[in-house]
């Protein structure tokens, strides 16, 4: 992929890539920048500058010489080789997501196999952010309820599962309040809207024993959703409560199902 002459990266794209690669908290050290520049045959023209500016100046100088973005791709391939991140795969995926948000504007994606792959060119920043995140790609494919996405879109763009979970459960309470004008919350709101011999909201015709049983099951499901996911996130510090990507996807799917049943309730 790097052997093919690639379009140069513009100033903003190159600056973003260099800031990601040379980030003070998790990026390359100064000595690593020096090593990988040398390994890719790029002259380190400004070694005393701050890390990202040092890298930027070296890459932009080489780009101007060659009128191609190959030097940038070569540096990424060397410095982000998968073997460097053994035992730190979650961090590696997050790093690739940020890198790929920029690369998508060039129709490229650097994947965990350590190779660049041709993909459809992104036309907007939102599109690039969504496509770069595998979680958001899965969520898009599942066609989750728009009411849920309205509540937690910002958190998903930041891969902030902790607060996305909280916002997802808030979306359920919000829809119930819109349909009933009730002001309670959590399990109390679920009971107020869906419980009793003649519920305010019914997910079916509520005539047969089977339908009444389904209604009760839905009440338990919705209350369980609040108890399992909302209460821990609302009362625990983020550092004390973690959620995997797989659990987040399952939660959003379950919350979307609950929202669809609420939306269709009468």
Question: TL;DR of this structure?
Answer:
The chain has 266 residues and is an all-alpha fold. It has helices at residues 11-21, 30-39, 51-66, 70-79, 89-103, 125-132, 134-141, 146-157, 161-180, 186-194, 209-235, 245-264, and strands spanning 108-110, 116-118. It is 62% helix and 2% strand.
What does this structure look like?
It is a single chain. By secondary structure, the chain is mainly alpha-helical. It folds into 2 domains: 11-123; 140-264. The protein is built from 12 helices and 2 strands. The protein has a two-stranded antiparallel sheet with strand order 1-2. Strand 1 and strand 2 (116-118) form a beta hairpin. Helix 9 runs parallel beside helix 10 (186-194) and helix 9 (161-180) packs parallel to helix 12. The radius of gyration is 24 Å and the shape is elongated. The termini are far apart. Residues 232-241 have low confidence and may be disordered.
The H-and-E topology, N to C, reads as HHHHHEEHHHHHHH
Please give the number of β-strands.
Answer: 2
Radius of gyration: 24 Å
Number of helices: 12
Percent strand: under 5%
Structural class per helix/strand content? mainly alpha
Distance between the termini: 57 Å
Tell me the major beta sheet. 2 strands, antiparallel
Average the pLDDT over all residues and give the rounded result: 82
Domain Conserved hypothetical protein CHP02391: 142-262
Pfam families: Hypoth_Ymh
Protein name: TIGR02391 family protein
């Amino acid at each position: 992929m790097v052997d093919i002459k690639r379009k140069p990266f513009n100033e903003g794209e190159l600056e973003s890539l260099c800031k990601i690669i040379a980030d003070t908290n998790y990026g390359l050290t100064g000595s690593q920048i020096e090593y990988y520049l040398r390994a890719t045959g790029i002259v380190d023209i400004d070694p005393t500058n701050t890390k990202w500016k040092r890298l930027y100046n070296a890459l932009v100088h080489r780009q101007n010489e060659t009128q191609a973005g190959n030097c940038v791709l070569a540096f990424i391939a060397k410095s982000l080789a998968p073997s460097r991140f053994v035992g730190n795969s979650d961090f590696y995926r997050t790093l690739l997501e940020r890198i790929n948000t920029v690369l998508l504007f060039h129709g490229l994606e650097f994947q965990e196999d350590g190779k660049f792959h041709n993909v459809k060119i992104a036309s907007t920043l939102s599109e690039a952010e969504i496509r770069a995140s595998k979680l958001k790609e899965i969520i898009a494919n599942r066609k989750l309820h728009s009411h849920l996405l309205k509540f937690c879109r910002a958190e998903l763009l930041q891969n902030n599962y902790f607060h996305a979970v909280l916002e997802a459960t808030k979306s359920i309470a919000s829809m119930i309040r819109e349909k009933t004008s009730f002001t309670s919350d959590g399990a109390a709101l679920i009971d107020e809207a869906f419980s009793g011999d003649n519920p305010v909201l019914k997910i079916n015709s509520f005539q047969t024993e089977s339908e009444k049983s389904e209604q009760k099951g839905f009440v338990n499901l919705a209350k369980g959703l609040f108890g399992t996911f909302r209460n821990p996130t609302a009362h625990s510090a983020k550092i004390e409560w973690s959620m995997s990507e797989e659990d987040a996807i399952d939660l959003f799917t379950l919350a979307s199902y609950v929202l669809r049943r609420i939306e269709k309730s009468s």
